[in-house]
Amino acid sequence: MIRRNILSDEGVRQQFINGVLALKDPARFPWPGQQGLSIYDFFVAWHHQSMMLFTPPTQRDRNSAHSGPAFLPWHRYFLLRFEGYMISALGAPDFRLPYWDWSADAALSDPRQSPIWSQDAMGRFTNPSVWQVRIVPSERGLTRLAQPRPLERSLGILGGPLPARDAVRTVLRDQPLYDAPPYNSFSSGFRNFLEGWEGPARIHNVVHVWIGGDMADSTSPNDPMFYLHHCNVDRIWRAWQLRYPNAPYVPAQSASNNLAFHRIDDTLYSVFRETTPVTPRRVLDPLSLGAPFSAANHYDYDSMADLQG
Ligand SMILES: [Cu+2]
């Protein structure tokens, strides 16, 4: 099954919108035990909690899902779990998450005029009658708003331009190693350049900041753009894996306990109780995902031609 470019497929665009609206509805997909919150909000909380879990707890850089090797496998797992809910919400076994190719929009004279932001695409989520934010970060952790508020974005105000095609291709070409010690935001290697702590383009990070508002926070999945953005990040990781098929995921399981959550056979941080733990190793190949995923979870991308050369 195929993950498609959301701007080149009207059908999948409509499905994506319908699916997230269903998962956001507490009447249709309740967060068990949390009156008025939904499964959609549960994923927001999962992402926030992953960032609060520093690994090890004696520092403030690497957490269980960011600034470390697990950044890519953890977000792949997060998307797969969300995609599973989308499939049931839509009753469409063939549905796969679409992606937003932000490098295409980076080439526009004004990326804020891209059709992605129109009212019949992702622009509609800033309409207060369509979408409300219910949980936000606070000093004590996560706070549920007594009065939900509209989604916030500040397109193109902060952080520099969207990542250009050439910048992404350069990282794909020049980073043949997955990651490197000290396995944090100071590392060389593909993961850290794609995550955006290293390199001039600040690839993944700058897209969060460019969209701004809720997208720039630990509760970034409050903005459905999160899923389209991370699907594109996952696509770039896939392109890198196909380009360097012999480059191993690192670190190995023999690495220090300080790297808990990031070693190849560590259990990825989760709010789901999986019968088979999900590890980096199990999500390395989306065409043959390991347990607990089945053939029904396999996916491929419609195109990676823009990422070659
Ligand atoms: Cu994240």
From TrEMBL:
The record places domain Tyrosinase copper-binding at: 66-83, 223-234
Q: Does the keyword Disulfide bond apply?
A: no
Q: Does the keyword RNA-binding apply?
A: no
Q: Which domain of life is it from?
A: Bacteria
SUPFAM superfamilies per UniProt:
Di-copper centre-containing domain
Where would one find the signal peptide in this protein? none
Keywords of the record, alphabetical order, are: Copper, Metal-binding
The family database entries (PANTHER family) matched by this protein are listed as: TYROSINASE FAMILY MEMBER, TYROSINASE-LIKE PROTEIN TYR-1-RELATED
Q: What is this protein called?
A: Tyrosinase family protein
Q: Which organism is it from?
A: Archangium minus
